[in-house]
């Protein structure tokens, strides 16, 4: 998903995001990405994962 996703008007239901430096973040800790991708395959712990959709604000 490099190249990222479109930003939607409505947030993704059931997804909480607290990364307010992300282009897709919205008030209330909501994600407005069209879709999200969490990596890597085979992760064994939440510490081993990251949101590959993350795009710093202002870089779209």
Account of the protein in words:
With 60 residues, the protein is an all-beta fold. It is built from no helices and four strands. It has one domain. A hairpin with a 3-residue loop joins strand 1 and strand 2. The chain is globular, with a radius of gyration of 11 Å. It holds the Pfam family DUF1540.
Quick one: overall form? globular
**Strands of the largest sheet, in order across it?**
1-2
Task: Provide the domain count.
Answer: 1
Q: Kindly state the percentage of residues in helix.
A: under 10%
Number of strands: 4
Weakly predicted, low-confidence segments: none
Rg of Cα set: 11 Å
In terms of DSSP E residues, the strand content is 5-15%
Average pLDDT level: 90
Give the number of helices.
Answer: 0
Distance between the termini: 14 Å
Provide the structure class: mainly beta
Order of helices and strands: EEEE
Major sheet attributes: 2 strands, antiparallel
Brief digest:
The chain is mainly β and 60 residues long. The protein has one domain (1-47). The protein is 0% helix and 13% strand.
């Amino acid at each position: 998903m490099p190249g990222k996703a479109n930003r939607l008007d409505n947030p993704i239901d059931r997804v909480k995001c607290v990364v307010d430096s992300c282009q897709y973040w919205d008030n209330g800790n909501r994600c407005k990405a069209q879709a999200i991708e969490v990596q890597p395959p085979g992760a064994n712990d939440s510490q081993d994962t990251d949101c590959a959709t993350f795009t710093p604000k202002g870089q779209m």
